[in-house]
Amino acid sequence: MASIVEARGRAAPHPTLKDLPSAMLGRAVNLVYLVVDGLGIRQMDRALEAGVGTAFFGRLPRRILTTVWPATTAAVVTTLSTAASPAEHAVLGWHLLLPELGMEATILLGLTRTGVPMAPRTLDLRRYLAVPDHLKRVPGTRTLLSYRQIARSRYSTAVGSWTRRGGYSTLRGLRRRIVGEVRRPGRKLIYAYWPVYDTFCHNHGTGHPWTLRHLGHVDQELSALVENLSGTDTVLVVTADHGLVDNLPERAVDLSLIPGLMDCLTILPAGDARQIACFVRPGREKQFREIVGRHLGDCCICLSAEEILKNGYLGPGRRHPALLRRLADYVLLPDEGVSFHVPVPGVKTELHKADHGGMSPAEIDVPLYVVDCG
Fold first, then answer.
1. Fewer CB near the terminus (10 Å): N or C of the chain?
2. Half-sphere exposure of 149 (CA within 13 A, CB side)
3. Dist. CA 194–CA 167, nearest whole Å
């Protein structure tokens, strides 16, 4: 995102990608970056080996990009909408602790863990989240195109500064909407988002025939999009927010059954199935570490907040004022094939066939295509 900001005529907020053709990105009248939610490089390679994805993914040159961490949609799409790092925006997981509101929220959906609205409309969510926006400095029209009502959701309108917004419900609709926006007059930056592939992976697994069939449809539409954009002075960037790891049913761990673990915590763990954010009671850290080591030490890594900050895992930039309050004392990263969950009492728990959020190559390595459509 820093490369896009710099290429479109403004100072980069962070270091840019060394091998990204910034001159090409800056020269084009239209710069479109399209994000296929959940498309990790390992999944793509397996699909290509199976003969799926040859029209676009297998035909055009690509790079491998490391996504931001946490490798979860909430964190990454916030970066894609603002060019702010997770350290700067402090949106750290699908479930996010909001201590000032006294709750954990499924932040993109605007819901509590029990599925009710997290706050009334009288709450100024933009002011509350206070996400810095480096992208708003980019001149010209800035357009957000997303699935169905996502572009106009409460979260989307609170994060980022878009001059135009639009939606669609099919892949063909996505393609047509992009082409229509490109043909409008003036210099444009267009961010388009497709979430359905990720849903197939969660519900069926990354290698399920239905998932592969859908990926084939994505591939065909991207190939058609390149043809449709020919002669429009457009550069198309295609990437993903994260990849996924398939879960082994026999390695799904209900953390509420670990003796003594929940007694060490102040609140249900936040985060995602593959990055479990644990907020520990004062005076219970030693006990927490002992329990994790005894019961989970052979299937996960336990990172402290100090390690996360010291190693720069949340990226560069000025820390968000709420970062230290939202960052867990410890984060558990399960091994590949392992998934953690904590049922909310009274709420039905549905386990995924594949998940993400961790630091494995399958989760953080994503493709990057840069196509000069002419």
1. C
2. 5
3. 10
Give this prediction's pTM: 0.96
Q: How high does pLDDT run on average in the chain?
A: 97
Is there a contact between 367 and 219 (Cβ–Cβ < 8 Å)?
A: no
CATH class in words for 2-246+360-372:
alpha beta
Say which amino acid occupies 7: A
Q: How far apart are CA 283 and CA 305, in angstroms?
A: 16
- Of 19, 26, 22, 38, nearest to 367 by C-alpha is 38
Task: State the average pLDDT over residues 5-34.
Answer: 92
As beta bridge partners, residue 189 has: 31, 142
Cβ pair 344, 113 in contact under 8 A: yes
State residue 339 phi and psi, 5-degree precision. -130, 140
Q: How confident is the model at residue 348 (pLDDT cuts 50, 70, 90)?
A: confident
Any idea where the domains of the chain sit in the sequence?
2-246+360-372, 249-355
- The band of 349, judged by pLDDT with boundaries at 50, 70 and 90, is confident
Residue 320 one-letter amino acid:
H
Q: What angle do CA 268, 270, 276 make, to 5 degrees?
A: 105
- For 179-189, how does the pLDDT look when each residue is reduced to its tens digit (9 = 90+)? 999 999 999 99
**Cβ pair 309, 363 in contact under 8 A:** no
Question: Could you confirm whether domain 249-355 is CATH 3.30.1360.180?
Answer: yes
SS3 readout for the chain: CHHHHHHCCCCCCCCCCCCCCHHHHHHCCEEEEEEECCCCHHHHHHHHHCCCCCCCCCCCCCEEEECCCCECHHHHHHHHHHCCCHHHHCCCCCEEEEHHHCEEEECCCCEECCCCECCCCCCCHHHHHCCCCCHHHCCCEEEEEEECCHHHCHHHHHCCCCCEEEEECCHHHHHHHHHHHHCCCCCEEEEEEECHHHHHHHHHCCCCHHHHHHHHHHHHHHHHHHHHCCCCCEEEEEECCCCCEECCHHHEEEHHHCCCCHHHECCCCEEECCEEEECECCCCHHHHHHHHHHHHCCCEEEEEHHHHHHCCCCCCCCCCCCHHHHCCCEEEEECCCCEEECCCCCCCCCCCCEECECCCHHHHEEEEEEEECC
